[in-house]
Amino acid sequence: MGPQTTCLTDMTLPELTRYLTEMGQPAFRAKQIFKWIHQKLITDLGAMTDQPKALLQTLQASASLAVPKIRRKQQSKDGTIKYLLELADGNCIETVLMRYHYGNSVCVSTQVGCAMGCRFCASTQAGRVRDLTPGEIAAEVYTAQRDTGERVSHIVLMGIGEPLHNFDNVMEFLNLISCPEGLNIGMRNISLSTCGLVPKIDELAQRKLQLTLSVSLHAPDNAVRSSMMPVNDAYPLEVLIPACRRYQKTTGRRISFEYSMVRGVNDSPAMARKLAGLIRGMGAHVNLIPINPVDGSPYSATDEENVRRFRQMLEDLGVNATVRRRLGADISAACGQLRREDAEVTRGRQTGQKPKERN
Ligand code: SAH
């Protein structure tokens, strides 16, 4: 599978249909092959038992599938599974499968690394290497479903990377994953989280998708938000919040704001009042996340009691708020803890020590 081969996993059904008809194949083959890739989740083209031998040979010589290698798999005591996946070019990403009462949800990465530079997030510490292709993002979901043998019913685009910074590929991934000939995951079961790239929020609004847009807010004033997230200098709150209102108006869908609580930074009663003032009347929902510890981050988490008080204040001020469950924290699979390589290798490099052996 050299880089010169065409990756079939990347193709939407119309694209695959064109590819095959240009090879002189009837269009119905495209539907069959699409189902093999996106519904039966094959890892080898040779497994397509209903295809003519000659076509299989041609495809095997000129095309490939996105099949990441599971380099490591860790299971949390709460049932969460974290995968370190190696892509065809040797780059690594992490993918997390979470088990909820309503079904299994997969948290996908959308880039190798991230360019956004949020100070509390491990995924951005080494910068961005490249975008993931639509098929590579889909293959994260397929790998988790194949490996567990359990159906994936929900997707969150909340892994490594800024999804709106890889807009076209992410849109094509949404097309693949929601396709009736594929896993057929409904848009209402998909959440996309952004740090707040305003022009792309407007572009997304025009698509009028039924997914849930989450916006990483984390602070109700520019000084605090800029100190946590460099993206706030480009799109400050007086630009971001009107974009969120436009998004809700255009799509008819409520936005969810993520607010990671940092002790002594954004967790005071004054901050709760400012936050309520900023988003009151939007009908938006606030998701409070006690910040997760990350190597090299200057922040520590607000204690649980304070999170509860903050939530109650928001509720009293008319803002709907919930506290996000921290799944997978014991295996560093929680928000902001995903990396594009083995954490111990990174640490070893920082400290000059060799990573510990593990079984
Ligand atoms: N780039 C997108 C997708 C990442 S989603 C975004 O910024 O929204 C991951 C969510 O976890 C975001 O809300 C992010 O701000 C938050 N997060 C990052 N690091 C965190 C940490 N250490 N503790 C808690 N939440 C964190």
Describe the protein's architecture and organization.
This protein is an alpha/beta fold and 359 residues long. It is built from 12 helices and 14 strands. The strands form 3 sheets. It has a 10-stranded mixed beta sheet with strand order 3-4-5-6-9-10-11-12-13-14, covered by helices on one side. Strands 1-2 form a two-stranded parallel ribbon. It is elongated, with a radius of gyration of 21 Å. Mean pLDDT is 93; it is low at 346-359. S-adenosyl-L-homocysteine binds at residues 116, 118, 120-121, 158, 162, 193-195, 216, 258, 260, 289, 291-292, 294, 335-336.
The tally of beta strands, per DSSP, is 14
Beta-strand percentage range: 15-25%
Q: Class by helix and strand content?
A: alpha/beta
Mean pLDDT: 93
Q: Tell me the distance between the termini.
A: 30 Å
User: Count of helices?
Assistant: 12
Helix content: 25-40%
Shape: elongated
Strand sequence of the main sheet, in spatial order? 3-4-5-6-9-10-11-12-13-14
How much is the radius of gyration in Å?
Answer: 21 Å
What does the secondary structure layout of this molecule look like, with pairings?
Layout: E1 6-7, H1 13-22, H2 28-38, H3 53-62, E2 63-64, E3 69-75, E4 81-86, E5 92-100, E6 103-107, E7 111-113, E8 128-131, H4 134-148, E9 152-157, H5 167-177, E10 190-194, H6 198-207, E11 212-216, H7 222-228, H8 231-234, H9 237-251, E12 256-261, H10 269-279, E13 285-290, H11 304-316, E14 320-323, H12 343-351
Parallel strand pairs: 1-2, 6-9, 9-10, 10-11, 11-12, 12-13, 13-14
Antiparallel strand pairs: 3-4, 4-5, 5-6, 7-8
This protein binds S-adenosyl-L-homocysteine.
S-adenosyl-L-homocysteine (SAH) binds at residues 116, 118, 120-121, 158, 162, 193-195, 216, 258, 260, 289, 291-292, 294, 335-336.
